[in-house]
Design brief:
The chain is mainly alpha-helical and 203 residues long. It has two domains: 92 residues; 76 residues. 83% of the residues lie in helices and 0% in strands. The longest helix is centred in the last third of the chain and has 92 residues. It starts with 6 loop residues before the first helix and ends with a helix.
């Protein structure tokens, strides 16, 4: 048996919907989404129990509801991303602002105490600089002492080499003089022998 839908029952939910919003507009909030869903559910229930037939209006409302739901979902995602980016930017700004400074642990610090701490910090920094300069001077003195010891060893080695060369030259000179003396004595003996031989032959 075919159930015919009456114009009154067909128009009743549409009229109630149109009183609050237009079916030709895409929904922009959750209240409209609930109204669209309520309308769609009532029409589907009516179609299931054969009290009303589905119309193209239902398909149009479903399309508008899905489109609006996607818009709301994307808007929520974008809002969440923007909120996260703002939080990250604020945290980064706070981190840069704080830097490496230490938060005071024991309440508010007085101006005099702060000045004394600054003075003590400056004195400690100056003392560290003085110690560093003294250490550098000590290192420089040690380096110069090492260089002086090296130069002294080089000078001693050169003096020893010069003395050795002088002794060698003197030894060579004495040996040459000795050889010259031997040669002169041999020449003298040879001359005497030749003279003696000549005298013996003349006799």
């Amino acid at each position: 048996m075919e159930v015919m839908s009456t114009p009154e029952r067909e128009l009743e939910p549409i009229i109630s919907i149109k009183e609050d919003f237009s079916l030709c507009q895409t929904l922009r909030n959750l209240i409209a989404c609930e109204k669209y869903s309520s309308y769609i559910n009532s029409r589907l229930a009516s179609a299931i129990d054969n009290s009303l037939e589905l119309s193209p209006t239902v398909a149009r409302v479903i399309e508008k509801r899905d489109k609006g739901t996607k818009i709301l979902l994307l808007s929520g995602i974008l809002a969440r991303e923007e909120l996260d980016s703002k939080k990250d930017a604020e945290l980064e700004k706070l981190r840069r602002k704080q830097g490496n400074r230490k938060v005071q642990q024991y309440g508010t610090i007085l101006v005099g105490d702060a000045r004394l701490k600054v003075i003590a910090r400056d004195e400690a920094a100056e003392r560290r600089i003085e110690l560093y300069n003294e250490r550098q001077e000590e290192i420089e003195l040690e380096r110069r002492a090492i260089d002086d010891r090296k130069a002294e060893r080089v000078r001693i080695r050169k003096a020893k080499q010069v003395a050795k060369d002088e002794r060698m030259a003197d030894r060579i000179k004495r040996s040459k003089e000795k050889q010259d003396g031997i040669d002169s004595r041999r020449a003298a003996r040879a001359a005497k022998a030749a003279t003696r031989l000549a005298l013996s032959q003349s006799d």
